[in-house]
Amino acid sequence: MLRHKRCLCERAEVLDQLVLYRYGRYIDRTNMSSWQSMENALLVSTLFMTKTIPVVAAGSSLVFAISPLTTTRSIQRAKSTLQYPFAPFFFFFIQNVITLLYAYATWNHIIALTAALSSSLGAYYVFIYYTHCSQKTRPRQMLCVAAFGVLLLTVNALPRKPEDAQWIIGVPSLILSILTSSSPLMQIRDILERKDASCLPFGMSVMNLISGSVWSLYGCMLKDPWIIIPNIIALSMGIVQVSLIFLYPSKSSRKAGWESDGAIERAD
After folding, report:
1. Has residue 12 been placed in a domain?
2. What are the distances in angstroms from CA 57 to CA 38, 67, 93, 181, 190?
3. Total count of domains within the chain
4. Domain of 83?
5. Residues 177, 188: Cα–Cα separation, whole Å
6. Which residues of the chain have pLDDT under 70?
7. Residue environment code for 239-267, b if the CB has 16+ CB neighbours within 10 A, otherwise e
8. pLDDT reported for residue 42
9. How far apart are CA 255 and CA 252, in angstroms?
10. Does residue 246 contact residue 200 with C-beta atoms inside 8 Å?
11. How crowded is the C-beta side of 262, counted as CA atoms within 13 Å?
12. For residue 9, is it within any domain?
């Protein structure tokens, strides 16, 4: 009887061990399969982002490049530069020319395509502004100095190794990117005094925000500080510019809003 009980107890212990072993393996397998599915999902999402973000970055740059068209059309209609400064158009053009050199040195086709189209449009914007400005001396001087600088940079950078050329072109490209994104804020004192942000180009300000955020992500993917730093600054400048536009709208739009409010009150 005692032997029979011992045998039963031993069999029960063996069964318990078998159950634990089998279910433990099953649990481990389910955990492994769940981890594998998570890894596969992460891999697919990473591949999707690596393919999507460059395309979105290029698209945002193209939209940013065409955003000043509304401003240049208003300049053409008025046959005057109105309240718009020359600096945003000038720095946009020169910065994209130098970015084109940077793309050639690094063999980045996405940057090369966007920089080529943007520099062509930038040349058009500079031409429209220069044609309709009354004082051409300062824009002419700025263009001559920029042409000499680009020529000097091209002669010194392109014959070198890609790593050296990346540094030589990257530093002025970084400086010009910062100047391009912050150039609309050169009149910030007048904006705050007059409480009128009509001198800020709306399209360029909004696209500073959008393009800066997308290109910052793309720069993080490439681990390229020459792309990350200027676009983070462009994102910050875009936030400031858009905030000023909404805080201090143009006087004409405010007047139109007051007139519409008065019309509604009279109708009531």
Report:
1. no
2. 28, 15, 18, 16, 33
3. 1
4. 56-258
5. 19
6. 1-51, 251-268
7. ebbbebbeebbbeeeeeeeeeeeeeeeee
8. 56
9. 5
10. no
11. 6
12. no
